[in-house]
## 1
Amino acid sequence: MRRRTFLKNGMLGIGALAGLPGARGAFAAPEPAAAGRENRVGEPIIVSTWSHGMAANNAAARILQVSGAGMTAVVRGIMIPEADPKVTSVGRGGYPNIDGVVELDAAVMNGNTLEVGAVAGMQGILHPIAVAEKVMDESPHTLLVGAGAKQFALSKGFTETNLLTDGAKKAWEARRGGLKYKPAGSGADPDNHDTIGSVLMDASGSIFAGCSTSGAAWKLPGRVGDSPIVGHGLYCDSDVGGVVATGLGEEFAKICGSFAVIELMRQGVEPTEAIRQVLERAVKRDGRNKGRLLAMVALRRDGTVGAGSTTPGFQIAVTRGTKHELTDIAPLYPPKKKD
Ligand code: ASP
């Protein structure tokens, strides 16, 4: 496994994140004391998917330093790739559905309270992760979809914006002639599966998770992947750890991928082994999953990080205190070499 160390300390000023809502609202359950969940590692740990997870971790670490608020740190971290038009699988710049419309999914989870908030198939709002947090904190619900999610966001002061960049529009136009509606599970575009997912454990041992994505490129309008579905794309429990997934959402749905990893970890299985077992389950059920991207990263409450991917190319960003590292994850099913 190749190991690379990137940014030491920040590249993003905290000013870039100022002025956004963060207060917990009327529907938020009281924060239980983290007593008995002390972080034995003694320093915050953040793990995120892909190289854009580095910028997310960096921002989250700075928020933690300033306010110590773990959920806010996860949300503000994920907002960085959401706003980056170069990231073609998340937020602005994300590839659209088959009709050329960007539809976003996101979710957050609090591992102390098991509270969740999520939005799915939401159009025209830049930061679905922040809307998901509002759903958790300021609504009696856990998941809002489509027009309802957008209406909720607007009512909370989010503004409508164009999410389709020129680059994403060109990519869609170039593919348009060849695009066909495909059945769920066939993988809309194997080249565009890069959900940002983050798990964070703060100094008190509280664990939080979040993820945000534009989903599978060229998907059917209304298609919802694993990312906004608790237990599929993310799960965390401060008594155990946290996990986030990236890759073909339809396959994670069939095995409740994130929840399955947490439950194996709860029984004492090491994080990397737990992920391997769950991905193997997907492959046993359908051998085609060997060649489809299914990847996960997990953080156990003792600070152990685990990861796994069916296919090559998966990377995880890990932040311990002020040290940031990007690590390549070896595939469980390397492609056969052609002679
Ligand atoms: N899991 C996401 C989805 O299926 C996509 C991804 O992670 O690439 O919507």
## 2
Amino acid sequence: MQEPYLLTAHELQAKIGKDEISPSKILESLFKRIGDLDKRIKAFVRLNEECILKIPENKKGKLYGIPVLVKDNICVKDEETTCGSKILKGFKPPYDATVIKRLKDEGAIPIGKANMDEFAFGSSCETSCYGPTKNPWDLERIPGGSSGGSAAAIASDETILALGSDTGGSIRQPASLCGVVGLKPTYGRVSRYGLIAFASSLDQIGPITKDVQDAALMMNTIAGYDEMDSTSVDIAVPDYTRSLTKDIKGLRIGVPKEYFIEGIDKEVESSVKKAVFLLKDLGATIVEISLPHTQYAVSTYYIVAPAEASSNLARFDGVQYGFRFENASDLIDMYIKTRSKGFGNEAKRRILLGTYCLSTGYYDAYYLKAQKVRTKIKEDFDNAFKNCDCIITPTSPTAAFKIGEKMDDPLSMYLSDIFTISANLAGIPAISIPCGFTKGNLPIGLQILAKPFDEETLFRAAYTFEQSTGFHRENPKL
Ligand code: GLN
């Protein structure tokens, strides 16, 4: 029999249903895999081996017995949750995030915490206080970020399912660079309650999985209205597995002319263009569209996101959570020293940028202006969706880069989000799926975007492409 860790959630579900395998056997197989590999990959910041002693009893749960790795910024009751930051060391939330509660209610088993860029600030998983995670396809390269631990663990079969969070691309970009599936839901589709906030108007939790079907299964469990999150939207959640039809006849796919310009790697461009031709062969209609404000997306995001982050991070002052600098001379000294020692460089950069943009005299010039441009970017999508049902772009302009390559050049790091950021600014859903490899055997990802609350179209298009290609079945040699 194939090792259980190699299987998807839906394959394991079928075996569990027929009593061919038990949840504890799945966990044992995973723990062995993690023990063998994670010293090299470093996807986990905490493994909760005790979960094997608390296998859920609800055999009827939709995800009964399926292991899930949780990004370290999502609260799991009584389990240390640090956002990859020294400032939260020792913080054990007294409650489960809504997504965790829903997963547990359906019998899924959280197995540990995944590495991430500190407070989800980054695109490479290098700003974590635990050190970088490695890309399973090439251990000298980054896995992408900020949900790099979740994506690397899926790619290396160290977990069956994973949760990530996406503020400007943090689910899709690492999924793309690790050759796996990552979905950012519509803003408001999945509750943010218990997600430690980065930029509250952009953040969404979503699945990172081995294939599209597993992403649909996870969405069936985590999506839906939550009274604990005032931005969660009360719209019925469809059964997403019904969209897995392998039929895209008549689907109108928009290709934005602004996304295939200079700076994009030739191999990425050619894989994505091939994908467009394939989708056309499979019955879709391709339409050229324009998203004229695309060029302003990165600058807009790097005002709005740090502004909200600086406000959200004000609460980490050594009083209520995690790390506190001892031996301070007075209260102010304690605040200053806790924050100076607790936050890493990128977090400090964001706090400085954000505080500056929000300060009197600059608010109108930066923050308010950025919000106006954000509306323009959203209107671009509203107009484009008059002529198409979904939009296709590359997920990332390049495949995985080398560890250390961009650490001293924040601007070039920020540009790696150029294709993912607009979806967060506009609040629309987007998925990244594998669409090829570079000559150096690094995965390339394809991004599909759809109208608000139309995750079904994403699943339909993504599943059709995945099933006609099979890139998701390739595994790194480890
Ligand atoms: N890489 C982007 C940033 O650094 C997006 C991060 C994210 O989505 N959390 O802000």
## 3
Amino acid sequence: MSKKTPSNQQWGGRFSEATDEFVQRFTASVNFDQRLYAHDIKGSIAHATMLAKVGVLTDTERDQIITGLTQIAGEIESGEFQWQIELEDVHMNIEARLTQLIGITGKKLHTGRSRNDQVATDIRLFLRDEIDAIDLELVRLQTGLLDLAEREAETIMPGFTHLQTAQPVTFGHHLLAWFEMLKRDRSRLLDCRKRLNQSPLGAAALAGTSYPIDRAYSAELLGFSQATENSLDSVSDRDFAIEFCAFASLLMTHLSRASEELVIWTSAQFDFIELPDRFCTGSSIMPQKKNPDVPELVRGKSGRVNGHLIALLTLMKSQPLAYNKDNQEDKEPLFDAVDTVKDCLRAFADMVPAITAKKASMLAAAKRGFATATDLADYLVRKGVAFRDAHEIVGRSVAYGIAQQKDLAELSLAELQQFSSHIEEDVFAILTLEGSVALRDHWGGTAPKQVRQAIARARASLGE
Ligand code: ARG
């Protein structure tokens, strides 16, 4: 191969031939990391400000750099900025343009810094902003759930184990179960934010720098709680991205479970809820269809987020200290996890308040499944029958009800008394579904009174 001029002005010095064209494309990240431009510029402004404070740059140089970077931000936002694959990544594209704009001072920006601490800083700043946006969407969804739970605090539906009717519950109570899942997700998210909120800036390539930098100052300028402790760890650590994806996977698991229930409930066989038309789509061949596409897609998208978590764990598992180019592969999974979570939360937060409960249908389903069988057993225990014997008596009553095609509450007193002489007229109060749920009147129980108290506690926890 003939000797060519090195193509890269930022690191071309020691090279005697240009980068292979394929290698250039293969190693470039600018197509996807340009998304970090605003955070890259913010980090650079903080770095330049710090360099001026410690006397490595003059105030005039700092101001020139800040003016140039601000102009570049404008160019990127307006779409006129020319991204160049030969400049590899977002960092070198911006730096090259800065030098074009302000000349030699532009070349001073990278003093006491490396792309290794730069990119680590950028991703943390990016993710911190996204976490804050995601947190707002999570709270919007949680608030929507609480509003719906409040409206449906007394609505009776069958509660399931093994997807078989188990005991009656209130729909409000069921929705609060979803709320609890999201509450844990939110606490994991905020926990992740706390740990990521440290500044790697100043770790430089891996060992720190010989300039008299003030890492605490640049950390403070960027709103980080402190500078990271160890320079080697700072440039190689991507735990925060993994933690975020772990949060995201679990959140998506919860949204997927809720989606599965919405899909089941909208089916003709269940017919528990109605989703508004704007969240559903039709079939091109079957005119009667109204498909719950939005929850189905959310359920489906949980797969790709799980994939991103595994991708990042695998990316990191064999990396020696400190920075390795492998780390460039952190961005696409992280970006997609962020985008997917935001879209799915938005879909849910918009959709949940628009769910209509089909109360009559829920009630009829609860009646069909002998949902008060446990209540009858508990009743017999209160009359002095041992629980195992009560279980047996109720089992025979249910078998009789199945043969007669009648729910327990529809059997006459005489019919019920065939199975136990302990059964008296007062049994009908507990065989109703309303009586059954009202009796589960303790912290965490399904009684409407408890559901309302739980909603009040939940609202307080959201700071409403
Ligand atoms: N594009 C790189 C990344 O995303 C930036 C850091 C490159 N550092 C280096 N020493 N090649 O990780």
## 4
Amino acid sequence: MSETSNKPSKNNPADKLWGGRFTAPTNEFVEVFTASVGFDQRMYKQDITGSIAHARMLEHIGVLTADECKAIITGLNDIMIDIESGQFAWSTALEDVHMNIEARLTDRIGVTGKKLHTGRSRNDQVATDIRLYLRDEVDAIDAELKRLLEGLVSLATREVDTIMPGFTHLQTAQPVSFGHHMLAWCEMLIRDRERLVDCRKRINVMPLGSAALAGTTYPIDREFTARELGFDGICENSLDGVSDRDFAIELVSVSSLIMMHLSRFSEELVLWSSAQFDFVDLGDSFCTGSSIMPQKKNPDVPELVRGKTGRIYGHLMSLLTLMKGQPLAYNKDNQEDKEPLFDTVDNLKGCLRLYADMMPQIEVKKEKMYAAARSGFSTATDLADYLVRKGMPFRDAHEVVGKSVGYGVETGKDLSDMSLDELKVFSDIIEQDVFDVLTLEGSVAARNHRGGTAPEQVRKQIERLKKYFKG
Ligand code: ARG
């Protein structure tokens, strides 16, 4: 709602592009309150591209002459240059990006500029601009996601044989390959990419031609405009085309899922970089210090990513709520779609970019992870499975191992630290070969099936993922 121009307000109705039926000037604060140019000017490129395609279509159907079309296109391209070189003074009195550009076009090329809006409304224009804008942003988000995935796969490749404690309830559960753990994040982010690609299909459909709500009396060629703009399809109902924003909500929903994944990942990185875990070092360039405690190296990036998840969820809720009470077709409420959308896209891209940059910097503290995996009786299930293989029913085996763990807690010994005689106290079917399964390496290697944590399987999955990136 901020003033974006120092020019005096064009408060005289005769100066408004829609001023024909008005006699009294707009209340000055209404002008500021209803303007969107302060934030929708970021869609200038899409607005100009859409207008050029529309002008070409008008020429194609004989509504504009070739000369008129040429003048409009030249004028619009010049405006683009002015905007990009900071020469364009945006005016709040002209309300939004669409009317700012259109008014400037007429200033520049004269009366021909006034013909551009033939057979079009700001309602289908803005819906088109948002879709063009989001289409580009989806591609940028996807590129960052891909970069992050590649970083994760490299990290996983480096650390296939690194053993860490796997957790349930944040209690040591079973040892896993650190590479396997990284590939879990890959699976989630790959599904996110699939959702993004799917959502793009519904974004890339053209509303232009819906005009205000009912279509237009001109013999427009919508397929022509759609081809010019690279749309995959055309909105089949003009009322729907100008009014719904489900495609945008879907993108914020996909974004929320991505943020949910990044936030969980962040939580792990925050824990792992603490002195208590000490599993990873995030690299100095991704941390900051404390102004009072000299020893601190804080994991700000993951913390902030976790924090930003909340605002993206908030945007999802605000967009859903924005739409829920609107009768068809376009209502001014829809102007409120932009700030949450822009903020979602900006923050999501920022988070993904930092995560992708951070991956190669993560130092994995293998010894610390290994020691932690050895200390929480993480091979207890392996001992139970061993007893089952020797003929004991699983519930009895569970009981025997529970007692051995109790003994370990009392004596401060891990299962693999106990002697055969000590173990035999709990079951005399335990033999020397038990030590093959009680080591962390033995435990991990034994989960050797598709989806399991055995390094052999992790390597196979990495190969599959490399094909996925090429394909
Ligand atoms: N600035 C408006 C928006 O963002 C553009 C469409 C306005 N249309 C109208 N009839 N007032 O939604």
